[in-house]
């Protein structure tokens, strides 16, 4: 049954999308899984787990694909990180939506907190969950303010917090709000995704939900993304945004 009353992230399972091939990062990290790219002596993924732990989350599932053995070998059951880590490994590349659909078939939770494995946005996860439940949303996005217009696609939101449309890269938009890679999603949304095929969360699932329970919450803060070599190199040269958040320093 859906959770009642004020939200707490504690009982929620966090699904971290860590199965990306990282093709664009190959010149920088070789065959290392993208989520395991090193930053200040730790894999990038460890900072996301640190964020989850600091926000009171305990149950995490890492959604793996390429390089699954490397990720599983490093993090194990998660006890040394203060977490209970499970895994959902793709038998073949399923895209972000397909990976979440597969995870929903393996874990019985009615609601999930989802994090992209190649971006970091140090926000209050409780606040995002509370907003999601308060609006009876089916899926709620965390939004950041882009410092570079035109580099990311945008998200337009009405006065009630409902997503009204997605703006392609380079198109003019009313605000500079962008998808920050953290979501709260109801199980029913994931079960509606066609199973056993590659599905894009961003290009197929989100647009289909506009006008049907898709909400968003803007947050202030710096969005860190490692999708391309220049961004990863910049973060490796100046990792303060991650290190000061403490994610890599926990246990």
Report on the architecture of this protein.
α4 packs across α7. This protein has helices at residues 26-29, 44-54, 68-75, 95-106, 125-134, 187-191, 201-209, 229-237, 240-243, and strands at 13-17, 38-39, 42-43, 59-64, 84-89, 111-116, 119-121, 139-145, 154-157, 163-167, 177-186, 214-218, 223-225. The strands form four sheets. The chain has a seven-stranded mixed sheet, sandwiched between helices. The chain contains nine helices and 13 strands. The chain is globular. By secondary structure, it is of the alpha/beta class. Helix content is 29%, strand content 25%.
| Count of helical regions | 9
* N-to-C span: 34 Å
**Rg, Cα atoms, Å:** 17 Å
β-sheet strand percentage: 25-35%
Helix content: 25-40%
Number of beta strands: 13
- Shape estimate: globular
Low-pLDDT ranges: 1-6
Strand order of the largest sheet: 5-4-1-6-11-8-12
- Main beta-sheet strand count, sense and barrel state: 7 strands, mixed
Structural class computed from helices and strand pairing: alpha/beta
* Average pLDDT score: 88
Give a quick summary of the entry.
Helix content is 29%, strand content 25%.
Q: Which helices and strands appear, and what pairs or packs with what?
A:
Layout: E1 13-17, H1 26-29, E2 38-39, E3 42-43, H2 44-54, E4 59-64, H3 68-75, E5 84-89, H4 95-106, E6 111-116, E7 119-121, H5 125-134, E8 139-145, E9 154-157, E10 163-167, E11 177-186, H6 187-191, H7 201-209, E12 214-218, E13 223-225, H8 229-237, H9 240-243
Parallel strand pairs: 1-4, 1-6, 4-5, 8-12
Antiparallel strand pairs: 2-3, 6-11, 7-13, 8-11, 9-10
Helix pairs in contact: 4-7
């Amino acid at each position: 049954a859906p959770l009642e009353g004020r939200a707490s992230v504690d009982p929620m399972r966090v699904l971290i999308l860590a199965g990306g091939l990282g093709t664009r990062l190959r010149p920088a990290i070789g065959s290392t899984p993208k989520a395991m790219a090193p930053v200040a002596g730790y894999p990038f993924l460890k900072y996301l787990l640190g964020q989850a732990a600091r926000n009171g989350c305990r149950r995490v599932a890492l959604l793996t694909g390429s390089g699954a053995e490397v990720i599983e070998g490093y993090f194990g059951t998660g006890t040394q990180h203060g977490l209970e880590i499970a895994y959902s490994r793709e038998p073949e590349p399923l895209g972000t939506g397909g990976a979440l659909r597969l995870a929903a078939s393996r874990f019985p939770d009615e609601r999930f907190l989802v994090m992209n494995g190649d971006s970091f946005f140090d926000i209050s996860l409780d606040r995002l969950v509370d907003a999601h439940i308060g609006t009876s949303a089916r899926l709620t996005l965390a939004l950041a303010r882009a410092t570079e217009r035109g580099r990311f696609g945008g998200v337009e939101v009405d006065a009630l917090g409902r997503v009204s449309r997605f703006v392609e890269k380079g198109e003019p938009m009313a605000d500079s709000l962008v998808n920050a890679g953290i979501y709260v999603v109801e199980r029913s949304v994931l079960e509606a995704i066609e199973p056993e095929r590659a599905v894009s969360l961003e290009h197929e699932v989100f647009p289909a939900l506009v006008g049907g329970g898709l909400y968003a919450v803007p947050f202030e803060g710096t969005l860190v993304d490692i999708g391309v070599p220049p961004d990863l190199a910049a973060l490796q040269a100046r990792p303060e945004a991650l290190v000061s958040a403490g994610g890599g320093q926990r246990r």
